[in-house]
Specification:
Length: about 120
Amino acid sequence: MSYVDGFVLAVPKANLDAYKELAETAGAVWKEHGALAFVECLGDDVPYGEVTSFPRAVQAKDDEVVVFSWAVYESRQSRDAVMAKVMADPRLKSDWSAMPFDGKRMIFGGFQPFVEL
């Protein structure tokens, strides 16, 4: 069964072009190093919930859009190997303060699927 990394973050609408460029580079790097899939999605129907929601989770501001993304790997072992290569890849070395989003509000984690259809 596969393994999935998931990410949720808020990107200022003014930075969407820069974020897309970064995501395209990152996706190419992830795939080159062994990810089976890499997907970036812009929030289109993500209401602000009374208790919890995607916008609340990342403290999205009025001028930001929620981004939901994921990468798929063959296994957890494969993911760990891919991530080690990705983190060492010079194409993704950057000053976090220059990123087109606030990395402190990004949520991420690895997930073991238990149903795959």
